[in-house]
Amino acid sequence: MEAIRKRLEQDLKEAVGRLRQIGGGAALDDLLGSTGEHWSFADEVDEIQAAERREIGYMTRELLVERVNKLASALDRLNDGEYGTCVECGEAIAPARLRVLPEVQTCVRCQDRLERLGRQLEAVEAETAVDDD
Ligand SMILES: [Zn+2]
Fold first, then answer.
1. CA of 109 to the centre of ligand 1 (A)
2. pLDDT tens, position by position, for the chain (133 residues)?
3. Distance from the CA of 76 to the center of ligand 1, in angstroms?
4. Which residues of 100-130 are buried (b: 16+ CB within 10 A; e: fewer)?
5. Of the candidates 8, 31, 32, 41, which lies 20 to 30 Å from 71 by C-alpha distance?
6. Could you tell me the CA-to-CA distances from 8 to 13, 41, 66, 108, 120 in Å, in that order?
7. What's the CA-to-centroid distance between 69 and ligand 1, angstroms?
8. Rounded Cα–Cα distance for residues 86 and 111 (Å)
């Protein structure tokens, strides 16, 4: 478990470092303290710089924020003794899966189910959007 903790802390530090480079360092403490909802507020008060940052890539930052959240919550779960348990079904997540993706919170089966559900929703949305008869 110590190896996983080190890896998670290392990954978290890296992701946080990259977020700092992109910008929004002040909001980062809020982010790590609670959820990621302070980000939109940070954009409002910091609009000029935000416009510059958008060139670097809004998606990149979104992904980094998501990764920081996942890694931070994985560390939380590690501290609570819940790490390695699927948040959906409560079964143990395969160690091999955790080695590849230490921040995952669901087992392969639940991940598949969630992704299928996501794709189905996307398909339904696409269908209703292209409603031309
Ligand atoms: Zn599961």
1. 6
2. 788 899 999 999 999 998 888 775 445 555 555 444 444 545 555 665 656 555 556 668 888 899 999 999 999 999 999 999 999 999 999 999 998 889 999 999 999 999 999 999 988 888 887 666 6
3. 19
4. eebbbbbbeebbeeeeeeeeeeeeeeeeeee
5. 41
6. 8, 28, 14, 20, 32
7. 20
8. 10
